[in-house]
Amino acid sequence: MTMAAANQAFRTRLRERAPLGGTFVKTPAYQHVEIAGGAGLDFVVLDAEHAVFDPAQLDQCVLAARAASTAAVVRLPDPGASSVLRVLDMGAAGVLVPHVVDAACAREIVARTRYASGVRGYSNSPRSGGYGALPMARHMREADAGASVLCQIEDRAGVDNIDEIAAVPGVDCLFIGRADLAVSYGVAELDHPLVAQAVDKVIQAGAAAGVAVGIFLPDAGALAAYAARGVSLFVIGSDQSWLRTAALGLNGHMTAAFLQTSECKP
């Protein structure tokens, strides 16, 4: 399957609200992407907002996702046209854009991902254009069809304007960020009633508009409950959190084993 076809397949599943599972990759290491893809995850989110990725590292990780048959979504550091263009030229399957607060912001983001009816700067020389191999019309058609737009809803304003955001053509997913929602509402608990009400409102808006809803969860414990409410895309933990959990577990096992060994000694 070509990269364009793989990206289109991911976007089709996203728009159909098929169950999709992935994780954040916060370490600029392509091996982590290969491991996630090899484990069967549907996608990875390369976190260029809260982790240190330079363009070359992002490029390597997008290529690793291609090799591992998983979709690479990039969480952008900002919604600017150059940020969007750079990762789509690399061949990323889509962009996760932080702090989408109204329909105007959502429309600008969609326009930056599109050639037709958009403002994406044209070039078929990067990976997305087959390094010059794809004819102009084909590249434009396939690129537009395969660019997924995930809008992160993590502000009170975004929740207030959620119906209008969900109605913007080209918005493929409303992604709930509970931590920033808590901060925006002036609370410090992810399960605070104000946050829970905001989450409900986003889920309801997605259902009404026929738009996928995604969420970040630290682990899979609440996955089934959110899936039953209509959430279809899940980002579970991160490469760093998984490594930390495994390291803590290993340390616990070693501590217990050493304790038993010492107790056995006369």
TrEMBL record:
Keyword annotations from UniProtKB, A to Z: Lyase, Metal-binding
Q: Which residues form the HpcH/HpaI aldolase/citrate lyase domain?
A: 24-243
Q: Which GO terms describe its cellular component?
A: cytoplasm
User: What Pfam family does this protein match (any one)?
Assistant: HpcH_HpaI
Fetch the InterPro entries from UniProt.
Aldolase/citrate-lyase_domain, HpcH-HpaI_aldolase, Pyrv/PenolPyrv_kinase-like_dom, Pyrv_kinase-like_dom_sf
Can you tell me which family this protein belongs to? Belongs to the HpcH/HpaI aldolase family.
Among PANTHER family, the record links this protein to:
2-KETO-3-DEOXY-L-RHAMNONATE ALDOLASE, PHOSPHOENOLPYRUVATE CARBOXYLASE FAMILY PROTEIN
Q: What is this protein called?
A: 2-keto-3-deoxy-L-rhamnonate aldolase RhmA
